[in-house]
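Researcher: Sequence recovery benchmark, item below. Answer with residues only.
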């Protein structure tokens, strides 16, 4: 028998209010309550263990500042050395895959869930998900929103406040609403940082 969970995981339309999905979201919210409200910042080992339990797959090193929110958790995969600042929201119905050395500023939001434009279908609570994929060595600035189905390439920087509605290629500096590629990131950016911000005795 095809369940709503099976439909969701295969990317088909499903009814999120059905018990097999609503129970999973409740279980996730219970763990998130403990993560966000009961564990103290100094309880680093316990927080790391719990976030690894919430998420589907992680690297060895992970740091997610509270509060953190997601729908299911097991639909999220993050690579090694992932960091998310406070207020991160991942609506992971469609699945989220994040590479190594990815940095999120505060209040970053990833929305993989989509709803029908047709009002009658939407009122029946149908929805579907489209996966978000973020490559390696990506910095996503504060208050960025990434919409369903988006791929962001390796080594890219998304400027604060951007709304990402289309795929962003690797090695790009992208900004704005809607987000657009401003230019390629080159070795000149490294040299500028070294000469401008690094102290040389």
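Model:
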């Amino acid at each position: 028998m095809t369940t709503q969970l099976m439909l969701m995981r295969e990317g088909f339309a499903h009814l999120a209010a059905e018990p097999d999905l609503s129970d999973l979201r409740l279980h996730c919210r219970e763990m998130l309550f403990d993560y966000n409200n009961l564990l103290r910042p100094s309880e680093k080992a316990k927080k790391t263990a719990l976030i690894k339990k919430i998420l589907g797959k992680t690297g060895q090193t992970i740091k997610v500042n509270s509060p953190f929110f997601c729908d299911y958790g097991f639909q999220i995969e993050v690579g090694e050395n992932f960091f998310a600042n406070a207020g991160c929201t991942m609506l992971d119905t469609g699945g989220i895959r994040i590479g190594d050395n990815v940095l999120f500023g505060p209040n970053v939001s990833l929305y993989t869930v989509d709803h029908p434009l047709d009002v009658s279908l939407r009122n029946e609570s149908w929805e579907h998900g489209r996966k978000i994929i973020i490559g390696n060595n990506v910095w996503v600035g504060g208050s960025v929103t990434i919409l369903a189905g988006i791929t962001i390439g390796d080594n890219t920087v998304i400027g604060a406040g951007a709304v990402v509605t289309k795929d962003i290629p690797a090695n790009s500096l992208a900004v704005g609403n809607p987000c657009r590629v401003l230019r390629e990131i080159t070795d000149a950016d490294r040299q500028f940082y070294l000469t401008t911000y690094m102290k040389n005795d």
